[in-house]
Amino acid sequence: MDLHEKHLTMAEWEALILALIHRAEVGEVAEPLENVHREKGSHYDVIFVGGGAGGRFGSAYSQARGLRQLVVDKWPFLGGSCPHQACVPHHLFSELAREMDYMRWNAETLFFPKFDDAKASIVEAIEVFKNGRNNAHAFMNWQSKEQLDMEYILNSWATVVDKNTVEVNGETFSCDNLVLATGAGTYLPPEIKGLLAEPGTPLGDRLLKRGVYDFSALIDPGLDYEPTSCVIIGGSKIAIEYGSFYQAAGCQTTILTRRQLMRTESLHHVDEDLRRYVVKNMKLRGMEIVEGCEILEVLGTERATGVRVLLADGTEDVFETDFVFIGTGERPPTKPYVDALGIEVDEKGSIKVNSRMQTSVPGVYAIGDLIGSPMEMFKARKCGMTAAKNISGEFAEFDFSEYPDFLHTTYEVTWVGLTEDEAREQYGDISVLQMPPKGIEDHEVCLPLSEGTMLYGHSRPELTGFQKAIYDNRSRRLVGAHHVGYGAKDAFQYLDHLIKKGITVDEMGEMNELFLNPEHFIQLSRLRAGNRDLTSL
Amino acid sequence: MDLHEKHLTMAEWEALILALIHRAEVGEVAEPLENVHREKGSHYDVIFVGGGAGGRFGSAYSQARGLRQLVVDKWPFLGGSCPHQACVPHHLFSELAREMDYMRWNAETLFFPKFDDAKASIVEAIEVFKNGRNNAHAFMNWQSKEQLDMEYILNSWATVVDKNTVEVNGETFSCDNLVLATGAGTYLPPEIKGLLAEPGTPLGDRLLKRGVYDFSALIDPGLDYEPTSCVIIGGSKIAIEYGSFYQAAGCQTTILTRRQLMRTESLHHVDEDLRRYVVKNMKLRGMEIVEGCEILEVLGTERATGVRVLLADGTEDVFETDFVFIGTGERPPTKPYVDALGIEVDEKGSIKVNSRMQTSVPGVYAIGDLIGSPMEMFKARKCGMTAAKNISGEFAEFDFSEYPDFLHTTYEVTWVGLTEDEAREQYGDISVLQMPPKGIEDHEVCLPLSEGTMLYGHSRPELTGFQKAIYDNRSRRLVGAHHVGYGAKDAFQYLDHLIKKGITVDEMGEMNELFLNPEHFIQLSRLRAGNRDLTSL
């Protein structure tokens, strides 16, 4: 369908995408969606292969800089897996988890009825998501065309012929620069037996055993039964986030993880007090967490019946379940690029890039999840922007080694900068401003208190969260901030910026807080800022 | 009770405060709580009269700077009216309002039952607050003594004898500097008849007519019946916030206001699009808003039965109700200080101060609500800090003319900097990055989408909120930010700081956002930052 001269409304876009997704589901080959300015020829300054977060933002930036750009995606919408199967459903599920948790703790008080576990359906939550997701898809397509002037071909596979040639639906497009941006997928550790329906099925078109799901299969084709329990393989963010949702939905959930929870390579700067609070509260809500174990096999022939593991004490055990969820992290499938371009990859298959997003092949860039961790939205988008800047002739680097991070349990857990231990090691003399203060137990004080924990604060103080700000006493600079609760996540974006700019306790104390600010960093800082020699609080 | 050598636990503090409040309620004269270092004599560098936000933070800062300080409060706890009757209950009620609203919109979908209006009790919500509030009180007393080393006398009235002398419980204390910090109370417009039980009762020990409440009387003595409807006099923040709670609790609420809602003197920088979204959604939830009217009288002899008003069209009308709530703002009762010190006040009775918090009487400072608008927490606390700095010999000024602001409906509504109209007038050439974008209706797009609006986003896009960032095109600086939704409030503290520092669209675009950040300012900025000539989005 040629959309170049058309201006679809949001409703028209939504109906179109829905129809195309349906046609793909039933196996029909659906026509591509094209917004291509063919009158300008088939040569581009840059072609983005993959129109997820990185490809879309890179395209927008390229357009803004006056480059001619084309982006190609297999799906009939821009935005990638995030709004279709990954981050957005996770956010919906985390909101529902928080709500179910809140309704359960407060059941039979105030206007809260007895919580009906039988009504807490994982399948229904998935349906709500699938019924709503096409609106975001529609908006990405609308905005990318009407506001950002991108050229795109959607619902189409791009074949990289060489570094200057991409083939789409039999048509050849040439480019001066190529940006690879096709993302990653769940990593299935080969040493775990029984994950796949048919052993030996290659990773590309794998079919997980019935009863085994990753975040993607959970949505498409979708979970089609209410599990009685869940066993999660791995301790990634996905494991914690989806696990907390399943548990809140009344599905007894067990996490089997090799390392201590939140002590994985992919999560850095996790403060021990924050970790303690998070894990304690997951357990308080009934989750079972088995650390230090090695997953051997998913049992069951027709469908999963349990997971066999080697426990930390050297004995074997079986965790029976009708729902196995894979939370072992993601890796990018990069073989097509190695084959076509001879591009260099690392030991996990991620494409190697320098700080300008340049690969080993001149003129070829790689961005987003395709280049490895962290597989986060900000990184994908800024990789796209960085590639676009360099292609437009600007020397631009992007260092994503330090960034604010978060995950969901039934709480929002957010952190940036150094942990207390790291700060002590690096600076020696530090002050820690935290709530509850050291020496006061969680249940003794209703603080931190703010939007989302007000009711807990007046009945169950131990559920109101945890927070900590860390200062280097010599420079008086903020070096770390950590928060469990709600409503502080947005602030951490700016705290990250301010920490990098060297914000001090004195400057923090001069800010204008909005009472009851979810993290109490400003007022706690002010309570100490008067001290010539900074001390903890 | 002499607490100087004692170290009460949180639980001991809580029990003690509860007992003292109870004794006061039944009319007993209870003993004072004293943490006074009498071994150091009765002379102080500074005495704070009033231990609310301003007095407590001023005391903490004075202590930190090595000044000897005493703070006196009439209540048996530090922290003032905020955690006892004002901001904290409002926050609890706003959380409950949001929750009831959420449960009502989603009723009979997913795990949400039919919402039972009969169970939504205002009285019960007040009880929950009163049962929980003493924990925060206990913490203020504990922290102020154990962590901040303050000297204080609580549960006691301070009489200002002269600018260097304060009498407490018959004992005289002298000081070099005096800081007045006793706050404000609801303003009862004298032209409105029938507010008081006995006409002519002075403001200090007034007794409102049965059925007439302000935020303070709502808590103490407390509403003791479930109203069938509510009529709110005035259009202040309190009117909007408490009114939204009453409406969510199933109590049909009408706001009678002289000016357009959110177009009052005390609320500056309210963007018209933001206002439209907020008011539209209050009405969507069933609230009646009557603008441009003049309140004449609260009807009823034994108890309130209705409110008589002069409407904008010049006709009179009566709004019948069994619950009248006063939302006309607050004013400080300053007559005792005028009488004792001859201190200068303005036409509303607020004490006049310069930017150093100095009053017309040398050595006497005034802070917080006592000096007038804005009656916000950040101002009170920073006033206290500013007074302490000046007393300690530092030249310190505090300009609170520009600050981030917020209010609650069933949403969090937050803003900082200029409105679109103000920015256009001041800078001429501006860009507006907003969601939904201009030309797209609220119901057409599920954005903004983030924690708290995920479920709305997938079923009722029109409820997901509104946001707008405004840039001056010439300097590319952020000049205003506006948000309706959840979870962005905390960020506005830092946005306020960054706007004052001159943050540009380019710097915003380089930040590391945390997906799905409640306000999409960073990524929207990045989508435009590539443009040499900034344009709206």
Feature tags:
FAD/NAD(P)-binding domain, globular, 15 helices, five-stranded parallel beta sheet, eight-stranded mixed beta sheet, 537 residues, 32% helix, alpha/beta, Enolase-like, domain 1, homodimer
What this model shows, in words?
The structure is a homodimer of 537-residue chains. Chain A has 537 residues and is an alpha/beta fold. Chain A has 3 domains: 10-82 and 129-184 and 332-391, FAD/NAD(P)-binding domain (3-Layer(bba) Sandwich); 212-328, FAD/NAD(P)-binding domain, CATH 3.50.50.60; 411-529, 2-Layer Sandwich (Enolase-like, domain 1). Chain A is 32% helix and 21% strand. The first copy, chain A, has 15 helices and 23 strands. The first copy, chain A, has helices spanning 10-25, 53-64, 81-84, 87-105, 122-147, 215-222, 237-248, 272-284, 335-341, 377-391, 420-427, 454-459, 489-500, 505-509, 521-529; strands spanning 33-35, 43-49, 69-72, 151-154, 158-162, 165-168, 171-180, 185-186, 212-213, 229-233, 252-257, 288-291, 294-299, 306-310, 316-320, 324-326, 330-331, 364-366, 405-408, 412-417, 430-435, 466-472, 477-485. In chain A, the strands form 5 sheets. In chain A, strands 1, 2, 3, 4, 5, 6, 7 and 18 form an 8-stranded mixed β-sheet that branches. A 5-stranded parallel β-sheet of chain A has the order 9-16-10-11-12. In chain A, a hairpin with a 2-residue loop joins strand 6 and strand 7 (171-180). The longest helix of chain A is centred in the N-terminal third of the chain and has 26 residues, at 122-147. Chains A and B meet through helix 2, helix 4, helix 5, helix 10 and helix 12 of A and helix 2, helix 3, helix 4, helix 9 and helix 11 of B.
